[in-house]
Amino acid sequence: MKSSNMLMLESKAQIFKALGHPTRMWMVERLAGGECCVCEIVDGVGADFSTISKHLAVLKQAGIVADEKRGKQVFYRLKCPCIMDFVHCIENVVINGAEEQHQVLCCGLEEGKNELER
Length: 118
Hints:
Strand content: 5-15%
CATH architecture of the largest domain: Orthogonal Bundle
Number of strands: 3
Structural class: mainly alpha
CATH topology of the largest domain: Arc Repressor Mutant, subunit A
Number of domains: 2
Strand order of the largest sheet: 1-3-2
Number of helices: 5
Shape: globular
Order of helices and strands: HHEHHEEH
Mean pLDDT: 88
CATH superfamily of the largest domain: Winged helix-like DNA-binding domain superfamily/Winged helix DNA-binding domain
Largest sheet: 3 strands, antiparallel
Distance between the termini: 58 Å
């Protein structure tokens, strides 16, 4: 594999890693509705300020969010709102997987019931 390909793959993997925490996913989904100040995120998540700051730093380092200081407040926004297309795709994968599991469980239970009746 060419080193330029490897660098691109590593960069993509960093974005996946940044999105790989439920709190950070919540933040991305919240910011899809528009920019907000850190204090709003702290209130929404219910975690302490330092924890939220660390999560936001991970998202910023990955290039997912941008910040802007206004007076004493820092506001965050999605740097690339099209990331929500990907998030919606992930939701579809989750929903389809849940439906498939439900189908397997229902069919499996029905087959087991039929065997017991024989």
